Amino acid sequence: MFFINVFYVLCAICFALYYFVRKQNGNVASTTKDSSISNFQKTYLVVYALAIGADWLQGPHVYALYESYGMTTHQIKILFVAGFGSSMVFGTVVGSFADKYGRRNNCIIYGVLYGMACVTKHFGNFWVLMLGRLLGGVATSILYSAFESWVVYEHSARGYDSDSLNTLFSQATLTNSLVAVGAGLAAQLAADCFGFVAPFDTSLLVLIIMVIVIGCTWTENHGDCSAPLTQTFTSAINAIKTDPKILCLGLIQSLFEGAMYTFVLEWTPALTPPDKTEFSSELREAIPHGHIFAGFMVAIMIGSSLFKLLCAHKRPEWFMRIVLFVSAMALLAPVVFHGNQQVILSGFLVFEVCVGIFWPSLSTMRSNYVPEEARSTIMNIFRIPLNLIVVIMLLQVYLKVGRGKGLSLPSLSMYDATYWPGEFFFADEKGDKLVCKQC
Predict the structure, then answer these.
(1) What is the mean pLDDT of residues 363-380?
(2) Can you tell me the distance from the alpha carbon of 371 to that of 369, in angstroms, rounded to the nearest whole number?
(3) Closest Cα to residue 244, out of 54, 419, 376, 104?
(4) H helix runs in 102-197, sequence order
(5) With contact defined as beta carbons under 8 Å apart, do 376 and 106 qualify?
(6) 9-19 pLDDT per residue, tens
(7) Please, are residues 121 and 65 in contact by the beta-carbon 8 Å criterion?
(8) Could you tell me how far CA 338 lies from the centroid of its own chain?
(9) 414 CB-near residues (< 8 Å, 6+ apart)
(10) How many CA atoms are closer than 13 Å to the CA of 117, on its beta-carbon side?
(11) What is the pLDDT of residue 63?
(12) Which of 95, 104, 221, 438 has the most CB atoms in a 10 Å sphere around its CB?
């Protein structure tokens, strides 16, 4: 009952905080009366919800589908490594096409590639499934670069203020969490009724709808479309080398998201009760995975609301150092309090709240510092070390340190990330003026 009660408490906190933030924003919105901003945000969020929903629909049953086809554990591991390896190598190139050939077109390519990956799930052949993983890896790189690049350019081109962009990123994080819960329920229903391949067919349908909506509602925008593709990569590398702020953002992204992927792999064993612990001679409470996952999503929603409140007083460059430090400390819970489910879950929920703050904060900072002409390319370059971290995790290079204790190294890596915002950025007492220490 502990886990379920925690979930209900989180829901109450989330609803109260969301209502409070919306009421404050409503007062501001009533003075601006700019319906065009609201329409633009809805146009983007509908497409974003469809894109991220298609991704969430596939996640819960990938492993089960492979097992149903008779794949061995070794073969399944190879398939997962191939997916992230594809995102690291091919995804970096294809995702970077957005700057030259159009962000809108790249988002449509995401739908096509991911849809083809869904089709491959109907075949029990290892190499066909491998092709699907390669296509999915490329599509993932597009998902996490082209969509944000499109909306940042359009927001600036239409002359909207920066506060509305912060609100949009916060709403996107909230949408992501809501869609994750809904997609998980829909995927389970489809799998129960029609088998493990049904969630992928549902995802394919969502992707088709997404492509149609993009074609009907989005306009095209580019980076530097006149430059050759090789020059776009050269410009991106030079921007990273010459501007420490961009390097800082990339390092934060890679380290934090690397910790997130480790958390995805490790939270279940960390919370799974051993037979006996130092805290009690009795068996620990069995974990309800569905309620815990839903609780994590609600915690992210709480973080997205806190982001809005924090931005009303400070810039992300100011408060993100604290957020990263708290995140690192939270992930030490299973190491320091091994076997104590209550403390470990509390630490994980704090981490997820920080994730809810992290996503819109990073997007906001990228919109300020990453140059428009090579935005998608730079974002994909910084997915290379991230995917490398994930591949290392899947190969179990350092996850052989005991149940749940694989979180200790990502925690230390993320603690290193807390150095970067303070090293490269500082603000005045109100957080209004931003200066780069290295400039």
Answers:
(1) 89
(2) 6
(3) 419
(4) 103-120, 126-143, 146-157, 162-194
(5) yes
(6) 999 999 999 88
(7) yes
(8) 27
(9) 255, 256, 259, 324, 327, 328, 331
(10) 28
(11) 85
(12) 95
